[in-house]
Amino acid sequence: MMESLVRVTDSFVNTVVQFGSKLTKGLLEDPETGHKKEFTETQSYLALKVPPFVFEGDILELSCAAYPGYSAGEAELHKGDQFIGSSHSGNFNIGSVNMKTSGSYTCYRSVKHHLIYYGKKSSVYISVKELFSKPIISVNSGQIQINEGGHMTITCDTKLSPHRATTELQFVFYRNGHNVQGFSLSNQYGVPSAQMEDSGNYTCEIKAQSGGVKKESDPKSIQIKAQKLSDVSVRLESAGGQVIAGERLEILCSVEKGMGLLRYSWCKQSSLSCDTKESSASEQRFVVESVAEDYGGEYQCIVTRAATGNSMRSHKFSISVRVKLGKPELKLSPGKVAVGDSVDLFYESKSGSVPVDYEFYHRNDSVGKGKAEKKEDAKYQVTVTSITMTGPYSCALQNEVSSKMQLSEGVVLSVMEPVADARITPGEDELSVKMENNLCLTCSVEKGTSPSFLWIYNETIANKSGLFQIQESGKLLCIESAQLHHAGTYRCQVSNQLSSNRIFSVTSNNVTISISEKSYQVMGIGITVAFLVLLFVTAIVTFKCRSNNCCHSPKSSGNTTLF
Question: 480 in helix, strand or coil?
Fold first, then answer.
């Protein structure tokens, strides 16, 4: 017996049976080298038949057969000293074989010859050949270094037995034990742009599509050399090119080229708050649906490589949020003034960015306008010269992002005219009043808003005395039935008040009143004279009447009366 399995070339085999055994001659071809050589083998009447070629994955069937025409008993098969099994027919199915199946097999069986059974055995060495060699993994045809972003090709090489050249092989690739390319007919795994996460220990596995033969390569460590990030840039996309509160804003953060998984962070410097997204793309878009008024500030885009942790920052980017003006509210300071005072007009608005164009109105007339770079500069000072400057004031504002002027509601300015030029009428500084006569004094002012009147009599307040009658809201002081105690000096004090600490007051001229008594003696003389005149008139009348009676007495019959 030969130690290795050989293929017998049938056209060169001659078998001769001599003395109970057979002689086989022919040419043998080595399946590994293909070389042929002569052989001669003598076998007994029992032969263990095996296939000419046995490769990994083959289904191996053995036959322990007696020479044709001879009866045989139960057959037993052994591999070395190990019993494999027995078979009445002498046929054995070993199943799918591998390299460990190789070894020396012996068949034991009794063969009948001339009515006598003789115990026979037949041995053969079975050498299982590799269907294909253990795969070897290589990268980029042996290239030592692979740069990030470069092309990477991993090849799984093996050698298929030429006697099974038509066997179809399938290849699968793993990185760190995870499948990166499933079974296919390609023995290559390609990465167009290698990234840091492509680094790792790679293995490949080969299997025969028609059988259960699988072989795995030894692991190969492949490390991708990291490239540095560069040129992080920022671009804002907003309506009209301005960042306007309440409007949509898009921020585009980009790098020169993609380098695997990147973490993009859009960060506000003052608060250190960031909006973060991850992507393998070379740019990332951040969207603010409605910009807040306080969104402005300095920002940076920070790009961090997930594989290495290395970061690169863009230049600082300053964002100024333009705010549309809300409805302004006019403020007056102070809200109540006197003629001659000054009042500041300014506005308050819950929203609105500067610079702002402003204009102030009194009723429908403009009183001042301008352009303010700061909110506190949008004011105007008015000097109140007349009581006519009372009434509603308003303001109108507009900035560069407002489509039209924003008009405030009207605010009323209260203007008071201080009292001035108080006078008492009658205008004489000295008045003489007869006792029991009546007299009224009137206090008036040339101007003054809502004046209050106070009468002073001999340096005391007359309003609180019961000696006088105060009428017409204090303007009129009357004396009914003047008496001697009404004599004295009178004046009035007129005031009006803007606030608790601003009171205007004027004092009138002084009027001195004297009371003269009535003369009862003169009155008596007058009455006496009048009485005497009356008596005199009565006497004259009586005398005349009597004289007339003496001269013109009536006639009587014959008698004459003599006095």
Answer: coil
Q: Is 105 exposed, middle or buried (0-12, 13-18, 19+ CB in 10 A)?
A: buried
DSSP state of 35: -
pTM above 0.90, yes or no: no
Q: Give CATH superfamily name and number for 7-126.
A: Immunoglobulins (2.60.40.10)
Q: Give CA angle at 222 (260, 199), nearest 5°.
A: 25
Structure tokens at 6: 């050989």
Angle at 53 between CA 52 and CA 59, to 5 degrees: 105
Name the CATH architecture for the domain at 329-416: Sandwich (2.60)
**Beta 452-457 vs 439-447: how paired, if at all?**
unpaired
Encoded amino acid at 373, one letter: E
Q: What is the pLDDT of residues 490-512, one digit of tens each?
A: 999 999 999 989 999 999 999 99
Summarised one tens digit per residue, pLDDT across range 245-303 is 888 999 999 998 767 789 999 999 887 789 999 998 889 999 999 999 889 899 999 99
Residues near 216 by Cβ (< 8 Å), separated by ≥ 6? 135, 203, 204, 205, 206
Q: What is the dihedral of CA 124, 130, 134, 136, to 10 degrees?
A: 140
In the chain, domain spans: 7-126, 136-225, 233-322, 329-416, 420-516
Query: Could you report how far apart the first and last alpha carbons of the chain are, in Å?
Result: 235
What distance in Å separates the CA atoms of residue 455 and residue 470, rounded to the nearest whole number? 9
Q: pLDDT below 50 — which residues of the chain? A: 1-23, 25-26, 28, 37-42, 521-522, 550-563
Task: State the pLDDT at residue 330.
Answer: 92
